[in-house]
Amino acid sequence: MKCVARFPQFVLVGSCTFALYLVSQTVLAKLGLEPFVALTIAYLIAILFHYTSNRLYTWSWHPRSLDGTLPSVARYAAMTLFSYFVTLIVTRTVTKSGIDIRIGMTLSVLVTTCVSYILQRFWVFSA
Q: What pLDDT, in 10s, does the model give residues 71-85?
């Protein structure tokens, strides 16, 4: 039950992260960056916020030392890399169809949300 009870917190953090992600990509693209370069930078900004917010708020995870933090950072990085590749595949497929990049970003988030929740709950922040 504890796993399900934290889902609303995960969704709140994810929603804030997604808003930051979309706004960052839009602003960076309007500043003249190529859309996929802007997407990558926005993705990095968003994952820093996402990791910190989920660690502290969703999972209330406070390791006592750096030795406890480093493994979770490595696991989170692996999860994020997987999500990033899914994002690129979905977004490139959508934009090749002539659809706005933000629609692709939205679809990729829908694909990766459930996988990320399960991985964070049982792997990233399990120690």
A: 888 999 999 999 889
Q: Would you state the structure tokens that stand for residue 79, as one six-digit string?
A: 């999860």
Q: Do 24 and 42 meet the contact criterion of CB atoms below 8 Å apart?
A: yes
| Token pair belonging to 67 | 């030795």
Phi, psi of 77 (to 5 degrees): -60, -40
**Whole-structure pTM value:** 0.77
- Both structure tokens of 103: 């629609």
Q: How confident is the model at residue 44 (pLDDT cuts 50, 70, 90)?
A: very high
**Could you give the CA distance from residue 110 to residue 5 in angstroms, rounded to a whole number?**
20
* Domain range list for the chain: 2-124
